[in-house]
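Dig into what follows:
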Amino acid sequence: MKTDAIFLKLFIYCLILFSCTTVKKNMITISSEVEVIKFMGTITTQSRSIDEKAFWYFKDEHAILKIRNNNFIENLQAIKDHSRDDFEEYRYAFIVKTGQRIDTLYSDAKLKTWILKKDKQETFFYDREGVIAHNLRNTYSFFYDCW
């Protein structure tokens, strides 16, 4: 009878240990995703260009995609051009979660001009060659106008 109780306790211990590691792995997977929100502009007609406030106000215009975070912000920060002149209107928001930290990237329809909102500061990046846009469109049809 004692051996049955020992095996039962050992089984419960292993079950708890396995459950904890599974939860930890799932948490890592979740935090390595980037949530992309696309402003579709199909329901409401805007008389002005979409700014950040309008982007978040019209939630019924949003389409959402989750993509892998392959050093997304780091790749963007490697771009040396910080021009903001070519930014049109807010079309995409990329929500990047790293641990407890949440950073937001915005881009226009061309996916060449980017705004990084980090620690309440805005930094602009301009991907002159369009490498990031090319990679996103080749991987996800979500980034085409017609999908």
